[in-house]
Each structure stands twice: as structure tokens, then as C-alpha cells.
Amino acid sequence: MTATRTALAWEYSPAPEATDHIRLKDRYGLFVGGGWRDAEAYEPTINPATEEPLAEIAHAGTAEVDAAVAAAREALPRWQRLPALERGKYVFRIARLIQERARELAIVESLDGGKPIRESRDVDVPLAAAHFFYYAGWADKLRYGLAGREVGPMGVVGQIVPWNFPLLMAAWKLAPALACGNTAVLKPAETTPLTALLLAEICQEAELPDGVVNIIPGDGSTGAALVRHPDIDKIAFTGSTGVGKDIQAATAGRDIGLTLELGGKSANIVFDDAAVDQAVEGIVNGIFFNQGHVCCAGSRLLLQESVAEEVVEKLWRRMGLLRVGDPLDKNTDVGAINSAEQLQRIEALVDAGEREGATRRTVACTLPERGYWFPPTLFTDVAPAHRIAVEEIFGPVVSVLTFRTQAEAIEKANASAYGLAAGVWTDKGSRALAVARGLKAGVVWQNTYNQFDPASPFGGYKESGFGREGGAAGLRPYVRLT
Ligand code: NAD
Q1: At what angle do helices 429-438 and 406-414 cross, to 10 degrees?
Q2: pTM to 2 decimal places
Q3: Which ligand 1 atom is at minimum distance from the Cα of 190?
Q4: Are 239 and 295 in contact (CB under 8 A)?
Q5: Is 1 a residue whose pLDDT tops 50?
Q6: Model confidence pLDDT, tens digit, residues 454-472
Q7: What's the 263 CA to ligand 1 centre distance in angstroms?
Q8: Which residue stretches of 320-394 are H helix?
Q9: CA 96 to CA 115: how far, in whole Å?
Q10: What does the pLDDT look like over 170-229, one tens digit per residue?
Q11: Phi and psi (nearest 5°) for 32?
């Protein structure tokens, strides 16, 4: 059954971010050995809100992956010998340059990925700079952060990132790697390469020694070639669990460091003593932030039975106020779906939810004629075995389940192949701590959701992967201890 709600007739004047100062090149090559080189093949990157091409992007093949790894290998001894304090200064300079180019980076992130400018401007770009600042500070303190042992870099690291937070994920990968004295080959995702390529320009502006960072756009075949390259010392991957499993199999038996940051189906748990209005804001942030293209999205909403009806009604009313549309409009809450393929995946899972008997409500809003869009959607009458309760939808869709007791809440939250994050909404600190201890999730937020800080480690259990990014724990995968 499908119900719809028409968004309340609150008309805002459009507030589009100006883009006339953005100068994208027609074509971007590969950033290898400190300079730009041509590739054998190019692919367009498009704006998912308009389907218009933005630029032609190099697609790195096997020979180009070889060249990037060779450049990183050549740069390693000099970079490693540099006094740690000097290395830290380069990382700090990258942070400063991200701040200087923040407006441009935010606009390009929204153009290429479809996310609302409010989010790229206030979350993605400032957090990316914060990660470089944070790890710049660690560069000359590694021995203290890592139990007084001799610390050396892993060597040449291959880093593969997804499309949902393109610049931020690149920062999570590069900042600790550089601070620890590694050189890197970074592969951005195929649908969102632009901000990584602007980051290559920033590395040049920072006068980072040639070959310390190499950026090679491409698709899964480029990533697979990087993973299988015999001269790589460590792979850091963020992406889907399926590809993570492939990578684990491809690296098995090799003396190689591996961290996998994978998918999730995180539980957002609301107890009957929670402040309901605050919880509703947290639920909205948990699932509709970045169109739900968030690995730790609170996509399984667990409501205590006695407040379930009230929370659902307030949530549904709040959903009707979300503004869906032009990512570059500063009023927009929910932007474009990142690609046609992702839209198809969301539609298929939502269809499965209806077929399996859950009750669907979708906000009825006027969507732009071109581009990829999916309106905010809520499912009730969801059974734990339904696909929408089990599989990662990675879109603006929340599935509501209910529980009676604290023990049942913990059991239901943990009944997932994933273990990335969770939220607990309650008035009682003791209950929040007891529930957090019982949850098998890398991050547990109390009375909030989707809070990130470079000093705080992030990572998963079970099929959400292993290894931590952020904080002192985020240094560990990038060093060898002797
Ligand atoms: P994806 O696994 O399809 O792709 C991720 C990256 O891997 C892309 O750069 C892609 O080109 C590359 N790739 C694809 N096939 C490859 C292969 N065989 N070998 C090596 N590289 C390959 O994932 P996606 O659809 O881009 O991203 C969404 C997924 O990422 C979701 O599952 C989400 O939960 C996860 N994610 C996890 C975190 C985290 O920190 N745990 C953060 C963001 C996203």
C-alpha cells in the first residue's frame, strides 16, 4: 500500500549558490609523479541533478596504474627521510589550501555528486580540512601515540574511495598516510572524481614533493589492478561489502596491510523516555543526510512500542517539510541521487519492500524533470526478515521496526550482518551506556546521530569491515612498528 503526503505549501525563494566563478577544465588527466599526464581513455563525469557532462576524466588502465605505483615507490625514500616536523608542515599546508579553496570545493562536490550545497559547504569540506590539520599534528609525535616504539611507514599505499563523500574520504585516507611517511596512489570513484582532481592541484600548490600523492581516476578495473599490483604495501578501501570481500580474497596470502571500511544497516533506537521532538530531528539527520548515501545511515529505525505511533506521525509530518531538489540551492535538504544505477538499486529495494508486505509512505513533492531523484520514504509494518530491513538501501528510505524491552532492542539491533554504527535515544545515561555496551557497532551515538570528528575513530565490525580511520587509532594501519 502506498500513501503520499504533499509537502506543506511553504514557498521559499530560490537561493542558488553562484557557480560563475568555478573554472573546471574540459578534460582532466592522471596526476602522477607530481604532474598531469594523458590517459589512453577518457570518460565524462556528469552532474546527476541535470545529466549534463561536467568534464572528460582520464580512465587509468593497467599501464597507468603501474606508472603511478612506480612514481610513489620512487618518491618514498626521500619522503620517509624528511624530518617528521617538515612532513607535518606539508600536511598542514594541504589543510590550509583546502580552506582557501573551500567554496570552490563545496560547489564542485555538489555539482559532481548531487549532495546539497549546505552539506558540502558545512560538513564535507570543513571536515576534510580538519582531518589534514589533525594528522599534521601527529606527524612528529608518532612514537608517543604508538607506545614509544620505533615507527616506520608501511611504504606505498593504494587507496580506493567511494562516491558518497569523495573529498572527505580522500582526506580520511591521505592525511594519516602522509603524516606517517607513506606515499600514496588514490583512486576516486567513477561518478565523483572532480574534487580528488582539485586535491591534486592543491598538492601541487602545496609543493608536495613529486610522486608522494598520485591520483588516478577509473572504475572497478582500475581499483582491481591497484589491489593486485605486486609493489603495493598496503590497501585501504572504502566501499561496498561485496567489493571488500573481493579485495580480501585478492590480497590473501600476500604480506600486505589491509583495511576495509564497508557497508552498514545501522539501527537508530528510540526508547519511550526519549525527547521525541529531538529524536525526530536525529532520525531525519540519520537517514536523509546526503540522500541516505551514508555508510552509517540510521536506516533501521527501532522504536519502543509505546511511542512508536507518536514518533512515526511526527517523523512523517517532519518529512513533509524536507525540500528535495537543486543541490546548489541553499534551502535544499535532499539533493539528487548520485547516479542512474544507484537510483535503480533504491527503486528495486523499495519495490521489494512493497511486495513483501511493508506499508510505504513517500513524500509527494515536485521533482525536477531531469536528473536522478528519489523522494524521502518511510516503511512501517516491516518484518525483520524483509529485504528493506536486511539490505543496505543507500538511499532516502527508512524502515521502522518496533521492540518492547531493552534486551529486545539490543537483540534486534545486533541481528544484522553489519556492525558499523547505531544511535540510542533515551533520557537515561545509564541506559544509553548499557545499550551501547551491548551493541556490536563501531560507533554508537547517544541522543544525536552522524557526528564526526577527526580525533574520533570510525570503523566497523562483521561485514562492515575492519580497521579504524580517525583518531590515534587511524595511524596504526599506516605504520610498521619495530
Ligand atoms: P563500490 O564498492 O562499488 O565502489 C567503491 C570503490 O571501489 C570505487 O572507487 C570503485 O571504482 C572501486 N571498485 C569497484 N570494484 C572494485 C574492485 N573489484 N577492486 C577494487 N576496487 C573496486 O561502492 P560504492 O557504491 O562506490 O560506495 C557505496 C558503498 O560504500 C556502500 O556500501 C557504503 O556503505 C560504503 N561506504 C562505507 C564507508 C565506511 O567508512 N564504512 C564510507 C562510505 C561508504
Answers
A1: 40
A2: 0.96
A3: 11
A4: no
A5: no
A6: 999 999 999 999 999 999 9
A7: 8
A8: 340-355, 387-390
A9: 24
A10: 999 999 999 999 999 999 999 999 999 999 999 999 999 999 999 999 999 999 999 999
A11: -135, 130
Report CA-CA distances (Å) from 274 to 225, 280, 330.
49, 10, 31
Closest atom of ligand 1 to CA, residue 420:
41
User: What is the band of 343 on the pLDDT scale with cuts at 50, 70, 90?
Assistant: very high
Give pLDDT tens digits for 86-121. 999 999 999 999 999 999 999 999 999 999 999 999
CA nearest ligand 1 atom 10, residue: 220
Please tell me the residue having the least CA distance from ligand 1 atom 39. Answer: 261
One-letter amino acid at 279 equals A
CA–centroid distance, 3 to ligand 1, in Å, is: 33
User: How much distance in Å is there from the Cα of 131 to the middle of ligand 1?
Assistant: 21
Q: Which three cell numbers stand for residue 476?
A: 596504526
In ligand 1, the atom with minimum distance to the C-alpha of 247 is 19
For the beta carbon of residue 148, count every other beta carbon within 10 angstroms: 8
- For the annotated catalytic residues, the residue numbers are 261, 295
Q: Left if phi > 0, otherwise alpha if psi is -120 to 50, otherwise beta: which for 436? A: alpha
Longest Cα–Cα distance of the chain, Å, equals: 65
As a whole number of angstroms, the distance between CA 350 and CA 333 comes to: 21
- Contacts of residues 275-282 at CB distance under 8 Å and 24 or more positions apart, as own/partner, are 275/425, 275/427, 275/447, 276/307, 276/310, 276/311, 276/314, 277/314, 278/425, 278/447, 279/311, 279/425, 279/447, 280/311, 280/314, 280/315, 280/318, 281/318, 282/423, 282/425, 282/447, 282/448, 282/449
CA distance 106 to 331: 15
**What distance in Å separates the CA atoms of residue 24 and residue 108, rounded to the nearest whole number?**
9
**240 alpha carbon to ligand 1 midpoint, in Å?**
4
Neighbours of 430 (CB within 10 A): 8
**Nine cell digits for residue 331:** 534551502
Pairing assessment for the beta strands 30-32 and 35-37 based on DSSP bridges: antiparallel
- Cα distances (angstroms) measured from residue 40 to each of 58, 72, 160, 441: 8, 21, 21, 43
Ligand 1 site, CB within 6 A: 160-164, 187, 189-190, 219-220, 223-224, 227, 238-240, 243, 246-247, 261-264, 295, 392, 394, 420, 460, 464-465
Answer for the pair 59, 42: CB distance below 8 angstroms, yes or no: yes
60 Cα: distance to centroid of ligand 1 (angstroms): 17
Report helix, strand or coil for 267: strand
- In sequence order, the β-bridge partners of residue 458 are 469
Q: Which atom of ligand 1 is nearest to the CA of 261?
A: 41
Taken as a whole, the chain contains a residue count of 482
The residue among 453, 460, 454 whose CA lies nearest residue 475 is 454
